[in-house]
């Protein structure tokens, strides 16, 4: 099976990831509701696992360079579940940024190619910010 092939498992995984982001957003909008935040976290993690596979996600989260982000995200998740959603979300955000920092350059290139929104990201000041990371782009 080729890695870019979209099968049913990956479609379900992308849907779960999207719902996870949506529920986390709702949890933040509704004054850090711990139920919505916990549901969003569970859906996000299960969606990522279904999208890239159990072995790949285990390797990604347990990689030595991502260990600090994994620990931060995990402790933040536990804090959200036990009732400290603000501190938990701060730790989760920090862990998310550390874990997925390798994908920011790829996201920057993608945003610059969107027809209407791309114009904003191609302005000189914004473009100079994105060009700093162009050499570190992760192939996806």
TrEMBL record:
Q: What is this protein called?
A: Got1/Sft2-like vescicle transport protein family
Key word DNA damage present in the record?
no
Tell me the Pfam families matching this sequence: Got1
Instruction: State the organism of origin.
Output: Forsythia ovata
Q: Give the InterPro entries listed for this entry.
A: Got1, Vesicle_transpt_Got1/SFT2
Q: Write out the entry's keywords from A to Z.
A: Golgi apparatus, Membrane, Transmembrane, Transmembrane helix
Q: Where are the transmembrane segments?
A: 12-32, 38-54, 66-87, 93-111
Q: What is its main location?
A: Golgi
Q: How does it sit in the membrane?
A: Multi-pass membrane protein
Q: Name one GO cellular component term.
A: Golgi membrane
The entry's localization annotation reads: Golgi apparatus membrane
UniProt record similarity statement:
Belongs to the GOT1 family.
């Amino acid at each position: 099976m080729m890695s870019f092939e979209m099968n049913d498992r990956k479609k379900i995984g992308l849907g779960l990831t999207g719902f996870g982001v949506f529920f986390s957003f709702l949890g933040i909008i509704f004054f850090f509701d711990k139920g919505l935040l916990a549901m969003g976290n569970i859906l996000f993690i299960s969606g990522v696992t279904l999208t890239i596979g159990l072995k790949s996600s285990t390797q990604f989260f347990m990689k030595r360079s991502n260990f600090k982000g994994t620990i931060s995200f995990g402790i933040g998740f536990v804090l959200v579940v036990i009732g400290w959603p603000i501190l938990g979300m701060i730790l989760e955000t920090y862990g998310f940024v550390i874990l997925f920092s390798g994908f920011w350059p790829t996201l920057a290139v993608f945003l610059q190619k969107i027809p209407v929104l791309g114009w904003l990201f191609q302005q000189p000041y914004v473009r100079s910010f994105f060009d700093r990371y162009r050499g570190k782009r992760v192939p996806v």
